[in-house]
Amino acid sequence: MKNQSKKSIQEIILDFLSNKKALKKKKLNNKIELFIEESDIDYCGNTKPKYIINRTIKKMIENNLIKEHETGFSSFLSLTKSGKNKLRKIKLTSKKHLVSTEWDGYWRIIIIDIPEERKRERDALRYLLSKAQFVQIKNSMWISPFPMEHIMIAMKEDMDLHEELMIFITDKLDTGTEQILKDRFIQNCN
Fold first, then answer.
1. How is domain 9-91 classified at the architecture level of CATH?
2. Is residue 129 within 8 Å of 92, Cβ to Cβ?
3. Domains 9-91 and 97-189 in one fold
4. Burial of residue 182, with CB atoms counted within 10 A of its CB: 0-12 exposed, 13-18 middle, 19 or more buried
């Protein structure tokens, strides 16, 4: 893990919890300490890693990014919806895209139909779509030539938008529509 860009302790915690229902707090602490030791990045200065990690976890619980589950024997941590959204936002705004920015010939078309009474949710989704390099074509229609549909599918599940968010992946458009989409995408990306 040498020579990597510095992630915040919060981002490291979100990453470790991202694909798990829950993780023992002690095990998470040990994994993060090991990560810090193996990296050549100074995360803690003169402060002990355990203190920094515990302080970050406490703040993340207070900010509703993670939830602590107490049992008689152990404490477990899991991501909340807010934590999943925070991690998604971090990944979408990252300088290092894990997704190809080469067009594979398929258009990703997202149609949103979220009612006015859920305006905050709709605005948050639009913000995430723009960060994922989707371009708004109509009020409720977004497109992208980049293979980001897996993120949108996960978001649809996480935000429980089964009927409000539709995702189409196609390479079959009439030539006039395809030219309009290409022009609009190029215009909005410049």
1. Orthogonal Bundle (1.10)
2. no
3. no
4. middle
User: Is 70 exceeded by the pLDDT of residue 44?
Assistant: no
Mean pLDDT of 32-44: 76
Domain regions of the chain by residue span: 9-91, 97-189
* Cα gap 64→81, rounded to integer Å: 9
Residue 68 pLDDT exceeds 50: yes
> If pLDDT is split at 50, 70 and 90, which confidence band does 98 have?
low
Average pLDDT rounded to a whole number, residues 44-65: 85
> Across the strands, what pairs with 144?
108
pTM: 0.52
Query: CA–CA separation, 176 vs 182, rounded Å?
Result: 10
CB 76 within 8 A of CB 132: no
Place of tokens 């040990």: 30
Whose CA is closest to 125, among 167, 75, 173, 187? Answer: 167
Q: Hunting for tokens 């995408």 — which residue is that? A: 185
- CATH code for the structural domain at 97-189: 3.30.70
Backbone angles phi and psi of 14, in degrees to 5: -60, -45
CA 94 to chain centre: 10
Average pLDDT value over all residues in the chain: 82
Rounded Cα gap, residues 57 and 48, in angstroms? 15
